[in-house]
Amino acid sequence: MDTTMLAAQAVARRRIRCDEVAAPKPEKGKVLVKTRLASICGSDLHIVYLGWNIAEFPMPHGFPGHEGAGEVVDSGGTEWRPGDLVLTAPMFWESKTFAGYQLLEPRFLLKLPEGTPLAHSLMTQQLGTVVYSCLRLPPLLGQTVAILGQGSVGLFHDFVLRKLGAHRIIAVEPVKARQDAARRMGVDAVVDVTGQRATQAVLDLTGGQGADLVIEAVGSVETLNQALKLARPTGRVVAFGLPETMERVPFDWDTFFRRRITMNSVFGSQEEPGQRSFRLALDYIASGQIDVAPFVTHRFPITRVHDAFELAESKADGALKVSLTF
User: Fold this and answer.
1) 18-38 per-position pLDDT tens digit
2) How far is 141 from 153, CA to CA, in rounded Å?
3) Whole-angstrom Cα distance, residue 118 to residue 160?
4) Pairing mode, strands 31-39 and 68-74
5) How far is CA 105 from its chain centroid?
6) What CATH architecture applies to the domain 138-265?
7) Where in the chain are all domains bearing CATH 3.90.180.10?
8) What pairing do the DSSP bridges indicate for beta strands 321-325 and 4-12?
9) H or E segment at 35?
10) Where, residue-wise, is CATH 3.40.50.720 in the chain?
11) What percent of the chain has pLDDT over 70?
């Protein structure tokens, strides 16, 4: 095994670089995984670019990456075997998938099939988090859903919510490439504007009532409060996106109160007993029920991690999911 590895480190806001550092050593009870691929999540952008939920810089090497895939090199005496291909989906405080090697508790690993491209299997983490959220919703049969944002999270919601019986899906997305992706996912309507014009468009599409369910998949103060206005009276809002700040977020209490909205956040999919949601997501991918090939748009070597983050943040060149190779 290598004694050193390449790993990303966020050294200041908007500054992430690649260093060569000591690789972790095998440890009893933990599994040592050699990373092959890692992808950048929207929450990683919030953390590195905005300092969300971070006390200080520099951050630990490999952090905050939490979407990874690789190969077991040392089982640490667990049931895993060297050579096993695995999804690495650690909890937030143990996230180090932006590193050449990871030392993980066995419960944060999921075995991947040999016949599925690794880049496709890597999408299991984020799709699994969406599955985890959607399985906790009330019955959706016949319901109208509005989804703010059509990045990978929004697009995965298009697929899962339809699977769960949503009758009508309205996607709100200003970026042309992502509008096209939403149409390929089979949404019923695409709203291509933002702000008040988007709110009015959704209301017009729902006869002035609003949607039964609204998914906030952007992660901004503006869209969080906009979601409240898109929901019908007694409707539901899922706050999936992370806020842009650690400060208190201004909240439209009046709309929330008058429309009697139910609202929830999403956290904890990695600790779900039996990894039910991740396993279901992997089955969707491996069986071809969802084609994730269009999601995997860009790859960069870990040595160009800063460029990868810049592209993921800008959403240029049709970027949906930006991955790092090792």
Assistant:
1) 999 999 999 999 999 999 999
2) 21
3) 21
4) antiparallel
5) 21
6) 3-Layer(aba) Sandwich (3.40)
7) 4-123+292-325
8) unpaired
9) strand 31-39
10) 138-265
11) 100
Nearest to 33 by CA among 79, 88, 78: 88
Give every CB contact of residue 318 below 8 A, 6+ residues apart in sequence: 177, 297
Side-chain-side CA neighbours of 256 within 13 Å: the count stands at 11
**Neighbouring-strand partners of residue 39:** 323
Q: Are 137 and 238 in contact (CB under 8 A)?
A: yes
3-state secondary structure of 288: coil
pTM: 0.94
H-helix or E-strand containing 237?
Answer: strand 231-239
Could you give the dihedral angle defined by the CA atoms of residues 91, 96, 100 and 101, in that order, rounded to the nearest 10 degrees?
-50
Task: Look at strands 189-191 and 168-172 and give their pairing.
Answer: parallel
Residues in CB range of 227: below 8 A, 6 or more apart = 148, 214, 215, 216, 237, 239
Write the CB contacts of 309 (distance below 8 Å, at least 6 apart in sequence): 16, 40, 44, 45, 48, 49, 322
Question: Is residue 89 pLDDT above 80, yes or no?
Answer: yes
Superfamily of domain 4-123+292-325: Medium-chain alcohol dehydrogenases, catalytic domain (3.90.180.10)
- Residue pair 74/26 in contact (Cβ under 8 Å)? The answer is yes
Side chain identity at residue 153, one-letter code: V
Average pLDDT over residues 296-323: 95
End-to-end, the C-alpha distance of the chain in Å comes to: 15
CA distances from 77 to 26, 53, 73, 311 (A): 10, 34, 12, 40
Give the pLDDT of residue 85: 98
Main-chain dihedrals φ then ψ at residue 41, nearest 5 degrees: -100, 155
Instruction: Give how far Cα 165 sits from Cα of 25, 123, 142, 149, 235, Å.
Output: 47, 23, 7, 20, 17
